[in-house]
Amino acid sequence: MSFQRRVFAEILQDMIDHVLFNTPLSDFRIGSVIRTLLEAAALEDDEAYFQMAQLLRDFSFTSATGVELDRRLEDFDLVREPAAPALGELVITAPRPLLRDTPLIAPITVYADETPDRARVDFVTTGNGLIPAGRTASSPLPIVATVPGSVTNVPAGAIQFLRSPIPGLEGATCTNPISSFGGRDAESDDDLRARARRHIRALPRGTVAALEGKVIGVKAWNDAGALLGQVSSAHLRETQPGESTLFVLDATNLFAQSTETLVQPEVVLGAATAGQRHVRLRHVPIVPATLRLIIQTPGVPPALLLAANDPAFASYAALDDTTGVVTLGTLPPDHAYRDPRTGAAAPGLRAGATVNATYAFYTGLVAEVQRVINGDEDDRFRYPGWKAAGTRVRVRFPSVRQIDVRLALTPKEGFARSDLASPVTAAVEAYINGLGLGAEVVLARMVALAMDVAGVFDATALLPTGNVVILEDEIARAPRGSVIVQ
Question: Are residues 266 and 406 in the same domain?
Fold first, then answer.
């Protein structure tokens, strides 16, 4: 039987009925002694029912709120995300070319002026910069909002004011070339519950839900503490049995799939044991085509060079680019390991052979997500790994497909076309930049968004001429300047 809460009036009436039918008492008018006694008991029972209902509500994370919700989800190692300030970039421009290098020492305070939709937002630079001699503009400086919240996500060009002059740069101006990003309000109860549901579904490791759900929110930082990227969503695509690609979407919309190339060859193996077949590269994930192995076999000049972009590579070695493990097959005759029983060439290295390698590897958000998926043998506590044993999950950004849009507007009477261009551009950019992996760009949707802007009488799409089909490994994006309204 399910729990049914009872209230004071029905509890009291049941008590009166029981006493009436089982005793000679008959005076149950308000103020009578017996009714007052029963009312006291009924009030206590009503309070007990209320506390039980409250306990049941707070016991389940689907109905608990506030502090009680936080307590329930602590059992799943989930903590409410606090409010966070937006990050961005700032360029400071001098009124004329400078005669000497002029340093820009952090913190420099700038702000985006208030608008009808938001209050003034202050930002400070978090790194030093420089305006070189003969130049007017600095390189982009990292900035962070002084207060947290989604209101600190201001559009490109909104930051135009220095709070105080910079010594030696009187008359200087500033601007943010890209929109600030990453600012968020404290996670609401509804959002925390939704994240908890994803987390609980992801508890069985190795499932699609686990791999997609566990990487959401993963962040990557550079050595200076600047945010390189944050996973907003992920989509797993099976490429063949046992192999999948996990496409991650970057909340910053930068999709900076950065790589680094070794300057000096890496010593992968100092001295092989006879027949050794497996060696491990230090940095993962690897850019497969860049791998070059240099194998030096004792007494056999010259060294054997195996390049992954050479079709012959597959005859001698196999690379797992997600873990950095290279499995060696039977090498060319001069370097081949010989089975001591038969003398025939066999897979593996001769005793004492050395292996060096040069290659490029992914860094930033792709590398961090790959580490979460694979796990880290040196840090199992923070990186226990989520993929199933014996499978390969390759982490990649989707290919970014730039969408160029041209819209022609007809304004209503009393409106200027120049005043409508900015809100229409913002609406179309927000639509395209909000699309997920493989989502088609619908022409009618862009026209409808333009028509929804107050003051637009008609809108005609000049480009594209129809819906834009996006492949399953692509994502549509509209960088600044790709949407033109005329």
Answer: no
